Automatic annotation (TrEMBL):
The lineage of its organism: Eukaryota, Fungi, Dikarya, Ascomycota, Pezizomycotina. It holds the Pfam family NSRP1_N. The keyword Coiled coil applies. The keyword Coiled coil applies. Residues 12-124 form the Nuclear speckle splicing regulatory protein 1 N-terminal domain. GO terms for biological process: regulation of alternative mRNA splicing, via spliceosome. Belongs to the NSRP1 family. PANTHER family: NUCLEAR SPECKLE SPLICING REGULATORY PROTEIN 1 HOMOLOG. Keywords: Coiled coil. Residues 41-50, 77-121, 133-158, 165-183, 212-233, 242-310 have a biased composition (Basic and acidic residues). This is Nuclear speckle splicing regulatory protein 1 N-terminal domain-containing protein. Residues 1-20, 32-52, 77-310 are annotated as: Disordered. It comes from Fusarium oxysporum f. sp. cepae.
Length: 310
């Protein structure tokens, strides 16, 4: 409850003795501040301004201007729909309204020129063109891979045909050589199919058929080694195809989300314009009703005065 009284007394005694030696021994903040170099006051420090408020206010002004332009276009369409119905009526346009229309036209023209300059600088068409180029590049890569596989398959078939032709040529040569040796007096045994029974007899006759056999074995080994490479290539093409399909689906989803956001923004802007138009209409009706009420009141007062004078 009381803690360690002896250690507390010792700490207090040490603090008092240190203060007697140096009175500023515990002034940590002032010593630390004196060690740091003084910062030069800049113009930004003197003029403290919001960092993001300027951009927010500019965006609000742009939205307000766009809403006014949309409202003017809506009113113009309504006037066109009315046609000549109110052509004989007198029109009143205030100077402030005329200046506002001129300012809106000027801002709209500046916005159009800025968009044209950005389009000329980029020459890419925005994100839609970027996604389209990405899809075309993947499609081209896939087409090249399929074309290479088809050419490889086409080149593989003649090799097998050549191997069969070599085999037939080999058998034919052995039969012909056996026949020639028999004509010279050798006794090479040939079966009913015209094949040599014992090929060692051909070796004794001076013909070395081991070289062709070795070449045939080598070709067979090469074909066996080529099959795993073909399988790996097909698997690689399959993975590329699946990756391309996933990228296509992802890009389509991003495009759909972008279009949905654009539609939502247009709907919200349209709703805001309609709400503003309804509120103005309501204020006009209230003002008209108030004027009619005051007119009736004045008429009633005048009628009372007339009746009292009579």
């Amino acid at each position: 409850m009381f803690g360690d009284l002896s250690s507390s007394l010792t700490s207090r005694r040490n603090a008092e003795s240190a203060a007697e030696v140096d009175a500023s021994v515990y002034e940590y903040d002032s010593v630390y501040d004196s060690l740091k170099p003084k910062k030069q006051a800049t113009k930004e420090d003197q003029e403290k301004r919001p960092k993001y408020m300027k951009n927010i206010l500019q965006a609000a002004d742009v939205r307000k201007r766009d809403a006014l332009i949309a409202e003017e276009k809506k009113i113009a369409r309504e006037r066109e729909a009315e046609g000549e119905e109110f052509a004989d009526k007198e029109k009143f346009v205030t100077e402030a309204y005329r200046k506002q229309q001129e300012e809106n036209k000027r801002l709209e023209e500046e916005e159009r020129r800025r968009e044209e300059e950005e389009a000329k600088k980029n020459k890419s068409g925005g994100m839609s063109a970027f996604y389209r180029k990405l899809l075309d590049k993947d499609e081209q890569r896939h087409s090249d891979a399929v074309r290479a596989a088809e050419e490889k398959a086409k080149h593989g078939a003649p090799e097998e045909e050549n191997a069969d032709d070599d085999k037939q040529e080999k058998e034919k040569t052995e039969a012909d050589i056996a026949k020639e040796l028999n004509e010279k007096g050798a006794a090479v045994a040939i079966n009913e199919d015209g094949q040599v029974v014992d090929k060692r007899q051909l070796l004794r006759g001076g013909l070395n058929v081991g070289a062709k056999k070795k070449e045939s074995v080598q070709r067979e080994a090469e074909r066996q080694a080529e099959r795993p490479r073909k399988d790996v290539t097909n698997q690689h093409f399959g993975r590329k195809q699946a990756q391309r399909e996933r990228q296509s689906r992802m890009i389509e989803e991003q495009l759909e989300q972008s279009m949905k956001r654009s539609r939502d923004e247009e709907a919200a802007q349209k709703e805001e314009v309609e709400r503003a138009s309804k509120s103005r209409k309501t204020e006009g009706e209230i003002s008209s009703a108030k004027e009619r009420y005051l007119a009736r009141k004045r008429a009633a007062e005048e009628a009372k005065k007339t009746a009292g004078g009579a």
